[in-house]
Predict the structure.
Amino acid sequence: MRKEFNMNNQIEHNQIKNAIIEVKNISKSFGINSFGNDLALAHLVNIFSEKKDKKSIKVLDSISFEVSRGEIIGVIGKNGSGKSTLLRVLAGVYQTDYGQIIHRGDTFYLTSMGFGLMDRLSMRDNIYLVGAVMGLSQKRIKDIFDQIVDFSELREYVDMKIRQFSTGMMGRLGFSISVFCMKNKNSEILLLDEVFGSGADYDFEKKAIAKMEELIQSGATVVLVSHNLEIIEKYCHRVLWLDQGKIKQLGQPKEVIEKYKQI
Amino acid sequence: MTFRQTLQETTNAFALGYQLAKAHFKVRNEGSYLGVFWYLLEPLAFFIVLLFLGGVIYNNSIPQYPAYLLLGLIMFNFFLAVTGNASGIIIKNKYFVKSIKVDSAAFIFAGVLQSIFSHIFEVALFIFLLIYLKTSVWLIIFYPVIFICLCLFTTGVAFIFAAVGVFVIDWGNVWNVAGRLIWFVTPVFYVLRDSNSLIAKFNYFNPLSHFITVARNIIVYGEVPTIFSVLGIIVISFGTFLVGYFIFNKGKIYFAERV
C-alpha cells in the first residue's frame, strides 16, 4: 500500500496547481522575559525608566512555501526547530512578526488528543463540552454522539465520571471526540500536530491509526507535523524540513527524509 | 471585520461560554442540591457580621438597614467575583488558548454566567429578607433591568482585567487589594452623609456606587430615580462593555504566545 501510494504522489502533486495556503516570507520571534519583567511593579518601573533592548529568539525565519488544494505536506525537524510554531502561525493561534499567510479555506487545528477533558464530569458531558470547544453546535454533537461512543467502545461507561477512567480509556475517549469533531467540522485545511497515537491498547491503536489515515486521505489539504518518518513518507506528497526556524529542504518525501536521517 | 461578523463571533463565544459555565456548574455541585448551600453561605455570613457591626457597634440610623446592606453586598460581590475571576482566566485556560483556535471571550462569558448562577441564589435570599422585614417585595421586578446594566459594566471591566492579567502576571493580587479598598470606600454597609468628603467625591466617579444607589432607591425605598441617574448607568454600562470588548479583542491575538 505504501509503495502504491508513493507512486501516485508525484502524479497527484502535478495535478494540483491551485494553492490553498500561501506562506510568504514569514518570521516569528519570541521575547525572552524573566518572570520579574511581567510583574506589575516592573511594568510601573519600566514606564519611568529608559527602554532597554528586549532579548528575543527567532523561531521562524523567512519561511515561504505554498500548499496546493488536496495536498498533504509533512513537516519534520528536530525538537525546537519551529514545527509547532509554524502550525500555530498557520492556524492563526500566533501572529507573525513579518510576512503574510493567505488561506483559501477554513482551517481545523489539532495539536493533541484529549485536551479539555474535565475529570469530574461524566463521559457524556465531556463529549458535549469538548465538542463545543472544537466549534460544533450542540445539535451536531448530539448527531455524532453515538458514533463517538461506539468508536471509543466505552458505551457502558457513558454516564460514569471520567476521573474513574484508566489512562487508556481516557486516550480512547480523547481520540474519539477529536477525530469525530474534526471529521464533522468538514474543514478544507487540516493542521495536525503529532496526532498519531491515542495512548490506548494495541487493538484500539490500530483502529485509531486507520481512522486518522482515512481522514488524512479524505481529500482535505493537510499540513502534518510528526516525528514518525514512516507516516510522513507514507502519506505526504511533499515534506518540509525545518532546522532552527529555517527551511532546510522542501521536496519529495523519500529524498528529504533520507537527507534528514543522515544528520 | 464587519459589524455582522463581530456580532456572529460574539454570539459564538457566548454560546461556548454558556457550555463552559454549565460544565463548571455541574462540577461545582457534583449533582448534589446541597452544593447550593455554599452559594448562600458566604454572603449570609458576611451579611450577619456587617449587620451586627452596623447595628451594635455604631448604632446606625439607616432606614431598612438589613435590606440596604444585603442589596449593596450582593451587587458588589457579583462585581468582585466576576472581575477577580477574570484577572487570571486566560492563564488558567492557557491549554485551550494554545491548543486550539478558540475565542478567549468565551472564558469571560463563562465566568460571568457562573457568577449569575450564584447571584440568583443571593437574590432569592434578598427576597426572603424583604418578606421577613414585611417590606414591599413587588419592586424587585425592576432589579433585572438594573442587573443587566451592572452585568454589562462588570463584563466590560472583566474583559479589560483578563487582557491585563495576561501581560501583568500578578494582576490578580493587585486587584485583590484594590478591589477590597474600593469595597470599603463604596457605601455598601454605611451611608455617606457629608457630600463634600473625599470619599463622597470619589464615589461620584465610582459607577458601582451609582448602580447600588439606584437599586436601593427603587427596591428598598420605592423611590423613582432621576432621569440623570438612569441615563448615567445605561451609558456607563454600555460604554464600559464596548470599551472592554474592544481592548480585549485588540489584545487577544497575543494571548497564546504570552501565556
Remarks:
- Chain B has a mean pLDDT of 91.
- The interface with chain A takes residues 15-16, 19-20, 23, 26-27, 30, 95-102, 167-171, 173-174, 253-254, 256-257 of chain B (CB under 8 Å).
- The radius of gyration of chain B is 19 Å.
- Residues 10-258 of chain B form one domain.
